[in-house]
Design a protein that fits this description.
Strand order of the largest sheet: 4-3-2-5-6-9-7
Shape: elongated
Distance between the termini: 70 Å
Helix content: 40-55%
CATH class of the largest domain: Alpha Beta
Number of helices: 12
Largest sheet: 7 strands, mixed
Mean pLDDT: 94
Strand content: 15-25%
CATH architecture of the largest domain: 3-Layer(aba) Sandwich
CATH superfamily of the largest domain: Vaccinia Virus protein VP39
Number of strands: 9
Number of domains: 2
Structural class: alpha/beta
Length: about 290
């Protein structure tokens, strides 16, 4: 058994495998032995749970998940890590590594094939550059998962877990709030990784909701309104919505005034209910007559 929290052991494994870190893949491997057990405890509700892991790295989180879950399927993009993982995870018989790009995988089919009727959680240490697209794919795919436990950069955690209507909120905040209940779990220092990144991280939990907090007439229009509103944060909502939705400023201005909003309001001031009202008004405008 390898001690994957020992930096000298990790370096030796990587050197033996001829592995060099890829900046383009945002690779920073955890070496803090206290972090992964806590993440695994949060992700796995009981011994019958299946876990989809995104990015195995050298297997430090994967091994902790396998000790708690019935089955772990880890989607790892970097084929160079496969020989190393065969060493570090060779003793576990409930782990399957899939060499694929998580953003290109057919997730509904993957979960059905690998987990069947098991309860499923998602767990990952997400590189910054894929944090938003991965979270959105997980949420928008309407997967049969109960919980997502991921480590992200602290700034991303602040944005994801903000209340819609707070200054830190953005399009991702609203999307996350629609599909799930977001919660910060614990802080992770940048010194917990090799190589050490420039910023600290935070582990967050997204518990999937059966019933969203709002019920817009058209979810696709709701998504368009949210994305458009935050696309040009320095501009007023009228300008951002007009540009993003391709609707005349005067029409957007009339909609906002009719709903009781100041014409100079900015997107970060809107609540989920506000976005619902605006998207319904946009939907009605597009479908009038």
């Amino acid at each position: 058994m390898y001690n994957l929290s020992d930096i000298s052991t990790v370096k030796r494994l990587l050197e033996q495998g001829g592995f060099h870190f890829s900046k383009s893949l945002g690779q920073n491997f955890l070496i803090d032995g206290s972090v992964c057990p806590k993440m695994a405890d949060e992700a796995v509700s009981d011994g019958e749970t299946g876990v989809l892991e995104i990015g195995a790295g050298i297997g430090v989180l994967t091994s902790e998940l396998s000790k708690r879950a019935e089955k772990v399927v880890s989607v790892e993009l970097d084929a160079r890590l496969l020989p190393i993982l065969s060493k570090t995870l060779g003793e576990y018989d409930n782990i399957e590594i899939i060499n694929e790009d998580i953003l290109k995988v057919d997730l509904p089919e993957l979960l059905k094939e690998k987990f069947g009727d098991r309860k499923v959680s998602v767990c990952a240490n997400l590189p910054y550059y894929i944090t938003s697209p991965v979270i959105m794919k997980l949420l928008e795919s309407r997967l049969p998962i109960e919980k997502i436990v991921v480590m992200v950069q602290k700034e991303a955690a602040d944005r994801i877990c903000a209340n819609v209507g707070d200054r830190e909120s953005g399009a991702l905040t609203a999307a996350v709030n629609y599909y799930s209940k977001a919660e910060k779990l614990f802080f992770v220092s940048k010194e917990s990784f090799i190589p050490s990144p420039k910023v600290d991280s935070e582990v967050i939990s997204l518990r999937l909701l059966k019933n969203p907090p709002v019920n817009p007439k058209d979810i696709s229009v709701f998504g368009q309104v949210v994305k458009s509103a935050f696309a040009q944060r320095r501009k007023t909502a009228v300008n951002s919505l007009s540009a993003g939705l391709g609707i005349e400023k005067s029409v957007i201005s009339d909609i906002l005034k009719r709903l009781g909003f100041d014409e100079n309001i900015r997107a970060e001031r809107f609540t989920m209910t506000d976005f619902e009202k605006i998207s319904d008004a946009v939907y009605e405008y597009r479908n009038k007559g």
